């Protein structure tokens, strides 16, 4: 039977794939990055650039280790703001997205407004937030929430709406409620979109928290950077940038790993760059 | 034979932004229990709409659907659908895709007791369409034909009284298509469900069916119902049977006389 032969063929291809071994893609990224850092080090030394303009990577690294405990305190503050802000935008954004998907009225009234507001540079309302909420944690949390809210909602709405008509009909023909269709079809089907929104959202939440700290704060990485800048302590400014980069990348990776765990089927499904 | 499905004076008009579209006009059709019925017709004539009305996914603008002499309101009970696209859930393994209808219907924990029997049933079904050993694969690891087989298994695990198929083999290559026809005949012979099979292909319709319904262009009406008196089981020899060729030509002639098929 034709299908049997096809089955055997596929099984044997699978075996062959398991045996071959490839250098992971991240290896090349790491090599390139190291190369760039080495070049930076060499250029600053060779061109004798003063440290207050551009410190060498080694100096930055040494300073990073000397100041670990101080940095950790500020990082913790910023991380709290980011996580609370992002958590809040999920807690508000996902239910709103679900209501928009199920309510024609909201889809026609609120959703266009959300898309419109998204075009505003959110950071420009930071000064107003300071007037309303003061210099405390709340201002930063709200800013982080506002700025990450829109990508979360818009991607969630797109995701929930992306269910095939035929797949929806399949659910209906099985005689199940719209609620069950949501949990068995619409939600898992939306996961790739949801995660795309989360990735943008968490990165923007960091931006929100930092801007908040620029405008109003006595703690946090943004505050640290601002004060270091004022003292012309360029080394510390760069150290903060490195910590921020690590923070941002780590948060992104957490979302990315969650995505892999929750949707093992998804990535294998895509063709990629076609090499 | 017992009447399974009765369509009485079915009209269907869709109200769209650009005006009303009459998809079906005065459809009268009786389908017997255990019958294999095909519907052929030009694109856009309302074949899918008929199927969706029988399934209860769409309600007619006029007329009634009766299933076992009961008027249909809402979703048809005991009907399973195979769509043109396989609509497998990417996040479920092949086995879990087949088990989906049972997962959704088994609401209480008591039903879990049947879990082992359900799994056994699913594995048997998969084996009968040549997918033994693929239970734990994910849909993206299968070819188009294999995926459509899985969706047929998913329909059959519900022990349907009525199997509705909307161009299920339309997306497959000719060879796979032929194999799928044999598989379908085998299953239909084994489980004795009533089948409504929608297709573009005249040969496919004649080869599989007890009766072929020929439809006109939109608004869709029934031009003719042709009984196909070919012996079962049908096999390769069926195609060289003069009756087969005669029926295929008869349907072609109907389309030609309607101007749906033109040679020049
Ligand atoms: N939900 C809908 N809203 C508006 N018009 C529709 C809808 N569904 C179908 N139609 C229209 O009804 C007509 C019949 O559609 P249907 O899908 O039943 O055709 P079909 O015979 O299955 O065609 P095909 O062979 O191409 O699948 C078409 O003209 C189509 O545009
Ligand atoms: Mg159709």
UniProtKB/TrEMBL annotation, chain A:
Family: Belongs to the binding-protein-dependent transport system permease family.
Membrane topology term: Multi-pass membrane protein
Matches recorded under Pfam families: BPD_transp_1
Transmembrane segments: 27-53, 82-103, 110-135, 141-160, 194-216, 236-258
Any one of the GO BP annotations: transmembrane transport
Record keywords, A-Z: Cell membrane, Membrane, Transmembrane, Transmembrane helix, Transport
Highest taxon, organism lineage: Bacteria
Name of the protein: NitT/TauT family transport system permease protein
Recorded GO CC terms: plasma membrane
Organism: Saliterribacillus persicus
Database matches in InterPro entries: MetI-like, MetI-like_sf
Automatic annotation (TrEMBL), chain B:
Domain ABC transporter residue range list: 5-242
This protein's record includes keyword Disulfide bond: no
SMART domains: AAA (SM00382)
InterPro entries assigned: AAA+_ATPase, ABC_transporter-like_ATP-bd, ABC_transporter-like_CS, ABC_transporter_ATP-bind, P-loop_NTPase
Keyword entries, A-Z: ATP-binding, Nucleotide-binding, Translocase, Transport
CDD domains attached to this UniProt entry: ABC_NrtD_SsuB_transporters
GO MF terms held by the record: ATP binding; ATP hydrolysis activity
The name this protein goes by in its record: NitT/TauT family transport system ATP-binding protein
